[in-house]
Amino acid sequence: MSFSIRKRLLWTMLSTLLVLAVGASSVTYMRARSDINKLFDYEMEQMVYALAMHIASHPELTEEPLLRIEHDFVTQVWSKTGKLLFSSKPGTGPVAVLENGFSDYGGSTGWRTFTTGGGNYVLQAAHPQTLRRKLATDIALNAMLPILAIVPIGGALVWLLLGYGLAPLRLIAREVESRDPKVLLPLSLSGRPSEIMPLVYSLNDLLGRLDRALKVEREFIADASHELRSPVTALQLQLELLESTREESGRAELIADIRQGVSRISRLIEQILTLARLDPDYGAQTETIRLQEFVTGIYEDLQPQAAAKSIRFSLNADSPASISGDATSLRALLRNLVDNAIRYTPVNGAITIELSTSDKGAEITITDTGPGMSGDLRRKAFARFYRGDNVPETTGTGLGLAIARRAADRLGARLTLEDGRTGSGLTAVVGFPEAVIEKKPM
Predict the structure, then answer these.
(1) pTM of the model as a whole
(2) Cα–Cα distance between 51 and 135 in angstroms, integer?
(3) Among residues 77, 94, 153, 332, which one has the fewest Cβ atoms lying within 10 Å of its Cβ?
(4) How far is it, in rounded angstroms, from Cα 313 to Cα 301?
């Protein structure tokens, strides 16, 4: 579900402003309430002291002077026994609070009182809490109203400013949208705000990788089309010859050639699909693989193929080790290396597979007695559909080493080609630096 950055920023800023306004009003209310309490408490003290002085000079408690009190306040005179002798507002005010000093009576809707003893009397002044609270609330609201008035104006300004600030993002969106799909040139870096430069760098990196991937795929399709065109053309010619040949011996020979051609096309398609599956973006299942058992399985699978050419096929895998990786990639890596060795090793030749371990990890070598490769040829050998000129005619597709290299990269392994360790041929070395070396069983 998509969301608007502009709206989110606007609501965040307005919400923050409202929270600050409420917080400021709360502080204003508390300070106003404190100041109002101090002011009215002081007035109540003065009233009580004035009342005490009046009673001292007029003990008869004449009511006329006693009634000259501000209308919000109530003054009362009580006897020591708690009998009300005088009230500036009869029927209004708290009951007797005989403790000296300030007291709160009746909660938030009650009274604030100040009481003191005056000879034979208890003198008391009271002021309503509701009036104090109303005055403090009015002060807080008056302080908050200007802020609330600014909110809609500020919101409109913020909305416009956010639109202006987000304009570079819309510009990039239009620039990418208007691009021809075939044009994968990087976006210009000039005139971009620093805040969106990471996005531009990431887009340019993505465009670069996509451009390289498409170029590789186009080359791959062109190479595959070229490689498939030749055997398909040959197959068509052989079928035409088969139709025109009437001799059984000639037809049998052509059928054998057609079968060989179909087999080559089938293998080529299989190799192309394998190479596609080993693409770095293709999902892989990682598991723990015991190299000793895995290499033995590859050896047993390809032994009949080696035996068909009378090749001395040997295995030395006495060093147990394991890796964490994709079994499909490892199988493609080893099968293609061993298959290449069998294809290019002459009849009655020899191939040795060896698994060894050291402090640098595990290493698998495949050594053959074939024609070998020069240094220049080894550098080209991993290219797709490459076949050297100094090798005998085979049914190879030119994809085996390309598949092996991609599988090795997928496994994080090192794949190198060296001179044959027996003095002739070629040795393929696969190194696993992250392999876990296991102890040999006693």
Answers:
(1) 0.51
(2) 26
(3) 153
(4) 12
Q: Per-residue pLDDT tens for 80-136? A: 777 888 888 877 777 666 678 888 877 767 888 888 876 678 888 888 888 888 888
Give the C-alpha separation, 122 to 98, whole Å.
Answer: 7
What's the pLDDT at 13?
Answer: 80
pLDDT tens digit sequence for 379-423: 777 776 666 655 554 455 667 788 888 888 888 889 988 888 777
Distance CA 367, CA 421 (A): 7
Are 33 and 112 contacting, i.e. CB atoms less than 8 angstroms apart? no
The average confidence (pLDDT) of the chain is: 80
When mean pLDDT is compared across 248-252, 275-279, 306-310, 432-436, the lowest value belongs to: 275-279
The Cα angle at residue 13 between residues 8 and 19, in degrees rounded to 5: 125
Alpha-carbon span 102 to 159, nearest angstrom: 53
Burial 139-148, CB ≥16 within 10 A → b, else e: bbeebbeebe
**How far, in Å, are 9, 10, 322 from residue 355 at the CA level?**
61, 65, 11
> What domains, with CATH codes, occur in the chain?
5-149 (3.30.450.20), 195-276 (1.10.287.130), 283-437 (3.30.565.10)
Give the Cα separation of 367 and 429 in Å (integer): 9
Residue type, 388: G
